[in-house]
Amino acid sequence: MTGSDVSAPAGERVGSARGAGSTPVLAARTRGLRKVYGRTVAVDRVDLEVPEGAVLGMLGPNGSGKTTTIRMLLGLVRPTEGEVELLGEDMPDGAARALPHVGALVEGPGFHPFLSGRENLVRAAAFEPLLETRAIRRAVEDALERVGLAGAAHRRYRGYSLGMKQRLGLAGALLVPRKLVVLDEPTNGLDPAGTREVRKVIADLHGSGSTVVVSSHLLSEIEATCTHAAVLHRGTVVAQGELADLLQSESNALLVSTPEVDEALNALRAARISARQWTGGVRVELISTTAPEVLRTLVQAGVPVHEALRQRTGLEDLFARLTEAGDAEHMSAVDTIEEGSR
């Protein structure tokens, strides 16, 4: 098995799966999840929801509780308090029923150093409850090809680079079709080409209907691959939801495209609405007004409006607003606990 010996070692954006009444069907969720090591609170009252069919990115500074949350989600660590549900099963009691459908790469892969990459995968595949013995060889070759390791599969694992080890761990998570794939820092040690391949794997999983949870500190990777996001800070979730909605909620300006910029500025200023010239139109600060009020003012003044868009906040800006600087002491303590528990 790969990673932390989880049973079954275990795109671009599209909408999440929805059930009746547009209520999300959840592949995983936690309620009041808490983990305490001694006097250090690593995870504190986390309520996390992972919609079925989504690609959820877990963001947070080092020591924010991401890995500890994932370990509890997969039944690798028992929570101090709270509840975990995975693929409809209460954890950890339902682990035997849920985990064969889960692929995971957590805290880096763990393989036998003197065996080749192929031999390691064959051994891992032998423990897959959903994989017939006669299908093992084909499954191994397909997984190696999928992560770009077919050419190095004969080499001993001890000679692999960090990026190659990550690829092999990812291959272990993909030996059989999964309902849920959990990847903890999957691009760690990868070069740009490897990072693009991981993006493609995630997109393929998403396209096939699998749910994917990706933990990463690389904001660009989350923004490029994920449909949903959960931001963790100081061991708790400070924001979660569809990524587009999270970014939209942080917007505080409206970009209005119009050929009559001066007329637009005069009309808005007469209505005591803050605005300034912008490329192709005007930028309106939505501080003491609303987008409908801005458009109403312009239309009533006879100003032609070709397009109006809320300014899109980047993920980096959103992340900076949700997490505070200067928490080095707190984060260092939690990070040490997380590493010591491995």
TrEMBL record:
SUPFAM superfamilies the record matches: P-loop containing nucleoside triphosphate hydrolases
InterPro entries reported in the protein's UniProt record: AAA+_ATPase (IPR003593), ABC_transporter-like_ATP-bd (IPR003439), ABC_transporter-like_CS (IPR017871), P-loop_NTPase (IPR027417)
Entry keywords, A to Z: ATP-binding, Nucleotide-binding, Transport
Family matches, as PROSITE patterns: ABC_TRANSPORTER_1, ABC_TRANSPORTER_2
Gene3D superfamilies: P-loop containing nucleotide triphosphate hydrolases
Domain ABC transporter: 28-259
GO MF assignments: ATP binding; ATP hydrolysis activity
SMART domains, per the entry: AAA
UniProt-annotated stretches for the region Disordered: 1-22
Nucleotide-binding is among the record's keywords: yes
Family under the similarity heading: Belongs to the ABC transporter superfamily.
Protein name (database record): ABC transporter related
Organism: Actinosynnema mirum (strain ATCC 29888 / DSM 43827 / JCM 3225 / NBRC 14064 / NCIMB 13271 / NRRL B-12336 / IMRU 3971 / 101)
